[in-house]
Amino acid sequence: MANFSKSNVPQFSVEVYQNEFLPEGGREVNAIVTVTSTGGGTTGGIPLAGSTPSPTYGPGQGPDAAVVLMVDCSGSMDYPPTKMRNARDATAAAIDALREGTRFAVVAGTHVAKDVYPGNGRLAVADQQTKAQAKDALRKLSAGGGTAIGTWLRLADRLLGAAEVDIRHGILLTDGRNEHEAPEDLRAALDSCAGRFTCDARGVGTDWEVKEVTGIAAALLGTADIVADPAGLAADFTRMMENAMGKEVADVALRLWTPVGVEIRFVKQVAPTVADLTGRRTEAGPRAGDYPTGSWGDESRDYHVCVLVPEAGIGQEMLAARVSLILPAPSGAGAPQTLSQGLVRAVWTDDMVASTSINPQVAHYTGQAELAQVIQQGLDARKSGDFDGATAKLGRAVQLASASGNQDTAKLLSKVVDVVDAATGTVRLKAKVAEADEMTLETRSTKTVRVKK
Prior knowledge:
Structural class: alpha+beta
Number of helices: 11
Low-confidence stretches: 1-7, 41-60
Distance between the termini: 21 Å
Largest sheet: 7 strands, mixed
Mean pLDDT: 92
Radius of gyration: 23 Å
């Protein structure tokens, strides 16, 4: 395990968990790579999974950051009228949580995007006066018009792109479906924004499309969630902004180098959420590729790396992959920095016990990835009227959640199915399910728990 640290940058460490032993003819090598960043001026320690780091900077301290808040102001935000009021209050709460010196802007999103504060394509610098001005501008927001989220994201990208800062982040709130632009327009906007800023996305109420909101967050390496009751927006926005303010370093890449003859099957983030990074590889020299991980504060994440190695004889061993954390040089000038490194090995043995045992971390996260998948499949089957298929998939989800100790997901599942026997996955679909409960399960289906110690 290697470490890297310098002033104002968290210290990164990489730990590899695997069973490196393969039987004769064995080719598949699985490893869980735990990446931890700590120090860097936030809490100085590793938070528990799911907790939010609290920055401890004084005014003007910390990494340069810029944040754009995108607020849905479409006509549906007036139904009920409390929704728009709660959105204004939540955005004001997020502005209060801005660290002094952070650049920021507020965008009102309808079928067009308008930067309502500070305006004219600029960013404000957070201090007591600009925060008060921004909150004044929020009070003037009213609902009316359609929804074209791609235009919001493109404006946020222009605003953030003009800032000479380390961290660029967006927070997006919507209450409806993206009905006033084609799906390919939103996809094109996400493709153009990917790698330029991170973005957290929230759906308020129950009239929005889960796959749209989670797709935005996945493409821009942020979080997605539902706020079914608009009254909960202010607390959620405050947590999101505090988390954004805790980020220390952006654009960290997981670099995978493999020897000749080794094939990469997949690279996935598996904690705190499941996210498949396989298709997001960019080449980084001979037999090396980079997978984006976004911005980091004091936190720890797990990744599942699966490769196929060439066959070898008993007693032979090889380096199956080298995993590195890479920080690009500022402005692309000079060589990137290696923050930490870990090795994935393959050893061929005729010891059946050694070669057939599954590493606990690998087994756990294989189950968590399956859990996310079967929830999605079960809910899709339920919506299409395939109730037998839905019962089978959601029953398997209950079984996996129970076995892995994922209590949060188990609770969400219990609002969609009646659990007869969790251990065997025996369930009955509920006759009536609240829309908010079904959407919450779908939105949070990728959230995982770490291995029980």
